[in-house]
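Two proteins were folded this term; both appear here.
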Amino acid sequence: MPAIRRPNPAHLLAFTVLLLSVGGGPATLIGGESFPSRSLKIVTPFAAGAASDIELRFLADQLSIRFHVPVVVDNQTGAGGVTAARSVINAPHDGYTIAWVGNNTAISVSLFAKPFDPRKEMKPIVGISEFPYLFVTNESSSYKTLQEFISAARARPGTLNVGTSSAGTSNHLVALLFKSVLGLDILVVPYRGPSELSIALLRKDVDIVINPYGGLRQGITDKQIRALAATSSARLDELPDVPTMAEAGVPDFEIASWNALYAPANMPADAMDTIREAVTGILSQAGVKEKFREIGFAARALPPDLLDRRMRSEIERWAKVIADSGIERR
């Protein structure tokens, strides 16, 4: 009887990796096992239901399909994103816990007395999206254009206000920058969250609101909110009748916020490459781009070097706004 030949374990491993690669699953080997071989966690500083959270959960579903493992979204709000970032930095640096960051992350460096520094404690994986802010008012408001609001503010100093999300958030600082650049005597009113801000706008407790399009889309669609201007460089495809800030008479006020994936500084490079390649492939799909547009974002897979440059530039930009506005560190 001929001897039974036992398969070589090394050959079995190579064959398994080949099958996974062909099937679109994980093929990167880290520590002797394929990556990812278990669930991934993405920690976000945004509350569940926020526009950025909806965007992230859609992306997580797509990654789960591609990797054949669960991709879990962990909402850890508070402290301008510092709480969420610390959670990622303090987790094992094995590639299975990564961070969802953006403008608020850059702001927190100057806003908090004990922040984390994404330039030193984290590494960029890939940019995900960018989006402008909208200046809006209640549909029944007398302000038909942004210039009408500006003129009213100049005519009645100290009587008009602008609503934003929590103090220290991106749109709060955009409002402070708007006030400073134009030299307006207006009150900037930060609310505790998007829902309270929306209620205040619908009740006409505030004259105008500054917020990303994603958080205003339904109100605009339902004709409850009137958009006055967008901080983008060009008009939005979704809102072709809404002028840019420059067209509305406020030049040099182009602001694009953004979202990205970051990793702890010591995360294995191969794991970062695997995630980046998967995300880049997902964001290139026409259906994904359309889904992002529906919720107010432009998909853009920014490579690590450009993402790092953007982070550093935003840290400098918002540090100046915070200093000029006299906001105290927390």
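Next, the second protein.
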Amino acid sequence: MARLVDEKGMLTGITVCWGDARGYQTARHGLAREVVKRGEGFESAPRPIDEKTIYDIASLTKLFTLVAALQLIEQGRMAFEDSVTRIDPRFEALEYCSLLELLCYEAVLKTPERVDAQPDLPSALAQVFATYRAPETPGTKLYSDINALVLKYLVETASGLPFHQYLKAHVFETLGMRETWMKVPDGLMGQVMDYNHEHRVIGGRHVLLEGNSPGLPHDPKARLLGNGGQDLAGHAGLFSTADDMSRFAMGLLSGAVLGKDMLNQIGVNRTGINEAGRPYRQYMGLICFSKSSVRRLSEVPPWMGERAFALSGYTGNHIAIDPELGVFDLFLGNRCHNRLSVVEPQEKAEQLGLCEDGSGTVIWPDGRQVKSSFLYVYQKDDLLHAPVWDCLKSEGKIRREEG
């Protein structure tokens, strides 16, 4: 953690949790906020991470959406072979897309126009319900927000409950998760990690993103569809603490919210390909990443098994769960606040003076030195997953022998 935060400067701070179905450990390091903006400039305003810090878990929200859908499948209220249109007739263009194809990204789903480019909520919803199945195109990437975004509405239709109410009744209350919200209570806003002041260099342009107020999802689609905290999108939008996210992982491993057979299905690779003469494709299970044969492209730690699954969140978060080993690891960080997070095209990073691993600083047009979180995702195996494995072994939490 210290190497990521202090030496490389990629994150303002991070909390790491690891454990099994019976318990977990937590370590934290760094700041929930570095600076605030005063007028045209920035002032130092450090606020340390502590046990009460609330994180925008971003795409880790997808795992909650998946669990809700799998619960409803277990109950027989929808089925893998059902068409999306049969489950929810509002998705008229998805008559020939099955729920399983949606879950494992076999179906490439798109909206006619960008959801986050719409001027208001009704226009955004119109785009969501106009989602269609696009022809598959060559390339490595399958992962998309749209599949989980659509899945939320299927959960609502099949259950008869608003999505957040369903999660509260069937996940949060079941697991004692009292610190997870779609809208952070006003009195707790000061505990939310700061995700504002994100820097990007795109096509040579220096872009500073502002206006990401505490308690609002960093993801623009989730902000728009969330309607000021009145609704929860299926792909992002939840806020939670390290303790609650650990309770969620423990609940999955213990069978408290899903049966063992269903849990074991999540990480099975259904779409990934790495064969001679065929283009590589991401290894995807059900909404989550499966273990890939190419380590650099795998979200699953190298020491986890073939039924493990993982998700990462844009804001710097990560969760990985291995039903066979019976363990999990969880990272809750911040790669957005006061950081250069995106360089496009990536080949320009060296010209900006960044190191090969994406760390370093760039000189912003106003003269500030801005630290880089570019390529943070590729540091997790060596600097986070490997030490967690050592901790799990030393604590006797591994259920089967290595290999």
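The two ends are 27 Å apart (CA to CA). Residues 145-159 form the longest helix (15 residues). These notes refer to the second protein only.
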